[in-house]
Design brief:
Elements: H1 2-10, H2 12-15, E1 25-26, E2 32-34, E3 41-44, H3 46-65, H4 68-90, E4 96-102, E5 105-106, E6 111-118, E7 125-132, E8 135-141, E9 146-153, E10 159-162, E11 166-170, E12 177-184, E13 188-192, E14 206-209, E15 221-227, H5 239-243, E16 249-254, E17 257-264, H6 272-289, E18 292-297, E19 300-305, H7 308-319
Parallel strand pairs: 1-12, 5-13, 17-18
Antiparallel strand pairs: 2-4, 3-12, 4-6, 6-9, 7-8, 7-11, 10-13, 11-12, 14-17, 15-16, 18-19
Length: 325
């Protein structure tokens, strides 16, 4: 942590340098971006400036005293600085960035964007740093290696949260120069409304009768078994049959009443965000109780269903409510 703080203080003067962003690294149709040689900025760090001042003083002293060994040492160190600048640039050129996954979250939770760095060259790339927003992550890439880095961003409101422009930088090998590139990746996540503290009071749920059973989604009378389908309740799985290596089977219940709820915008009170928060809480509660529920909001109606896919679809409608593409 101390080294990171020292680097931040050392590079503080670079942040005040305003350079035109004309060499932006953009992703292609596959979501990957490659850093080109003409898309890299490079400037000396504070240590690099101190190093340059030292060389000037050594040169002045060598001229003043006509010291050949002083000239030799000065030019040797100057050549070392030029070689260090070349290796700093070389450490960044050709790095490939690939958009990863970003899980959907609720407002107030941090969003975590995964980005993969790939080294397609036959030499290692130490000291790579990825920064975006107020977060950063660093790694050392070996030859022909790929690693996943993660950037965290706070979420303050619902909607679509996009990854801002990020910076890929390096100070390798001597810390005399800092090379960096600006990168834009098509990575985003959905921010659902923050759920209300308590579930809203809605109208009583409706029921539908079934004389021959409700295709395994009831709760009263056992009618048989069927093969497991995604979305089935874990409470209805026949775990004993699974232990006997008979496969994953789901118990069927029928002759029952299947509960169905409508989560309706018009039945709630409050402003827009308060209603969205109440609907979010109602969706989470209904999903936890494993009942069928539908959603009615202005401009959108989702028919009753159940399961994780239905839950995510309803939450996505709340997140994007009122948003114009």
């Amino acid at each position: 942590m101390t080294g990171s703080a020292d680097r931040t203080a050392d590079d503080s003067w670079l942040k005040r340098v305003r350079l035109p962003i004309r060499r932006l690294v953009c992703a292609d149709s596959t979501g990957s971006a490659r850093v080109g040689g003409r898309q890299i900025y490079i400037l000396p760090t504070a240590y690099g400036l101190l190093y340059a001042v030292l060389l000037v003083l050594m040169l002045v002293g060598s001229i003043n005293y006509a010291n050949n060994l002083g000239f030799l040492l000065t030019f040797l160190l100057a050549g070392l600085g030029v070689v260090a600048m070349l290796h700093t640039w070389r450490n960044l050129v050709g790095v490939v960035l690939l958009s990863g996954q970003a899980a959907d979250i609720f407002a107030g939770e941090p969003a975590r964007f995964g980005i993969q760095l790939s080294n397609l060259r036959r030499w290692p790339r130490p000291g790579l740093q990825l920064a975006g927003g107020d977060d950063s992550d660093a790694t050392d890439l070996a030859a022909s290696e790929a690693q996943r880095l993660e950037l965290s961003m706070p979420s303050r409101k619902r909607g679509r949260l996009r990854l801002p422009r990020i910076t890929l930088s390096t100070r390798y090998p001597l810390g005399l120069f800092r090379a960096w590139s600006y990168v834009e990746l098509p990575l985003h996540c959905l921010v659902y409304p923050a759920p209300a503290a308590a579930s809203p009071t809605l109208v009583a749920p409706s029921y539908r009768q079934s004389r021959i059973g409700d295709r395994g989604v009831g709760a009263d009378d056992f009618t048989g078994q069927r093969h497991y389908r995604p979305g089935d309740s874990p409470r209805h799985i026949n775990w004993k049959a699974l232990a006997r290596e008979q496969g994953l089977l789901t118990k069927r219940f029928g002759g029952d009443r299947a509960e169905r709820r409508w989560l309706d915008w018009s039945q709630l009170q409050g402003d827009q965000e308060q209603r969205l928060s109440q609907l979010c809480r109602a969706i989470l509660d209904a999903s936890g109780e494993e009942v069928e529920y539908g959603l009615k909001i202005p401009g959108t109606t989702i028919r009753p269903a159940r399961g994780p896919a239905h839950r995510n679809r309803c939450l996505a409608q709340l997140a994007l409510f009122g948003e114009v593409e």
